[in-house]
Every structure is written in C-alpha cells, then in structure tokens.
Amino acid sequence: MRLALGVCYSGTAYQGWQSQSSGLTIQDKLEKALAQFCDVARVSTLCAGRTDAGVHGLMQVVHFDTPLERDASSWVRGTNRYLPSDIAVQWAQVVPESFHCRASATGRRYVYILLDSAVRPSLETGRVGWIYRPLSEDAMRQASLHLLGEHDFSSFRASSCQALSPVKTLRHIQISKRGAYWRFEFEGNAFLHHMIRNIMGCLVSIGQGNQSPDWMREVLLAKSRDAAAPTFSPDGLYFAGPIYSPEWGLPDTTPAFDWLP
Prior knowledge:
By secondary structure, the protein is α+β, with helices and mostly antiparallel strands. The chain is built from 5 helices and 10 strands; from the N terminus they run βαββαβββαβββααβ. It has helices at residues 26-38, 72-80, 137-145, 195-207, 215-222; strands spanning 2-9, 46-47, 56-65, 87-95, 107-116, 129-131, 149-152, 167-178, 181-188, 237-243. Strands 1, 2, 3, 4, 5, 6, 7, 8, 9 and 10 form a 10-stranded mixed beta sheet that branches. α1 (26-38) packs across α2 and α3 (137-145) packs across α4.
C-alpha cells in the first residue's frame, strides 16, 4: 500500500531535506525512524518539496510504499518515537497508488519571517531572518506585483537548480508586519532552487531604498542570476506545504502557522 505522511520540522540542525552521506538531513532521520518502526532495513520516501539547509517545514508531505498495515495513529506515534524532538509526523493516511506527493501537488506555499531590529535575534536564532534597517512596505508591495503570473524566473534560480524549466507561476504574494516581524507569504505552482531566498534578497534591497520597485521587473527580464541581489538567509524560510485536489481525501495540508509573527 502507499502511505502519505504530513511532517513538521525545524531545519536549523540539518543539512536540508535530501539524503546525504553524512546522514544529517531530514530525509535521513525520517527514513531511519520509519525503518525502525517497520522493523526493516530501509524505507525510501519522496517529498513534496525539498528544503535547503536551515529551512524549516511546517507541513512537508511525503509518501512511500509499504506492506505493513497499521492504523493512522500507530504510524504517527510509532514513527515519532524514533524521531529527534525537532521532527514530528503530524498525520498519516493511506492513499491510492496513483498518488505522488510531488507530481499530484497543484501548488506550494512558503512563508518567510524577518526580524526588523537594531539588535540581532537571540531566542529566535535560526527561526527568523534579520535586518537592521527599516523597510518600506509600499515599495516592496509594488515590486512584488512584477513577479505575479507566469514568468521565466532564471534571475532567481540557483546554479545548482535541477528543474527542467525556469518558467513558473507565482499566484500570490502577501506582505504584512506585526510588531518587529515582517511576514512574506508566497504561493505558486512550483519553485526553483533558492527562488524564494533570491526574491527576498531583492525585496529587502528595494524595501531599504537601495533600488526602486521597478528594478524587480528589470531583474526578472534579465533572466540572469547576476542581475539579482545576493541570496538571502535561509533562517526565516518555512515550507508551508503543498496544495492538493480534494479528490485525494488528504487531511488539510494548510499548516497552523498563526503562531508565527
């Protein structure tokens, strides 16, 4: 049978999602825990969206095939027993064999949390990005409008990106502030490697007055990574989860991230 899991994790201590020889990735820890629970040598998983070192997952969705039959609560409790405290399975559900956590997703969401303070973060270290110069919300909103819709996002693509095409569709960008914390929400059909962090670098530069809002359009049209700002910190980036059609009958994959500023 095919099983889907919803997984939440803090990425601070890990080298990203994808398995590495070091064993210090989210995938490595999850697969090890699943193998221990299933009492098998190995379990191989696929995820809805890979995350980089230091990036967090509010609602990562994975799937894998297994002959083991257990109820959903047993999968959750049993797997979490073997996971470190900063990774936890939130739900488990049997899905049709035609389900694919990545290919079946119709969209993906990311959230970036940015601390605006003269003093660097302490308690929030690793959980928020940081700036010490004020930002213009209006300038960043104007700039973000240039990114909405279908575009070639080559200017925001890492050189190591393995995506077949740089053409993606950004459906929604929301920028808000609560106290000293900025919150940036992104929704699109798919994202390139480092795409959000490179967009954040440009938004921050514009927000601080280093560039005009129309500069974002120039960067986009350049289709060159050299045209954009430096890649921003991974610390405040959260993969907020994939979006699926109701036909799959999955639990709500909208993460409960209202606790974030």
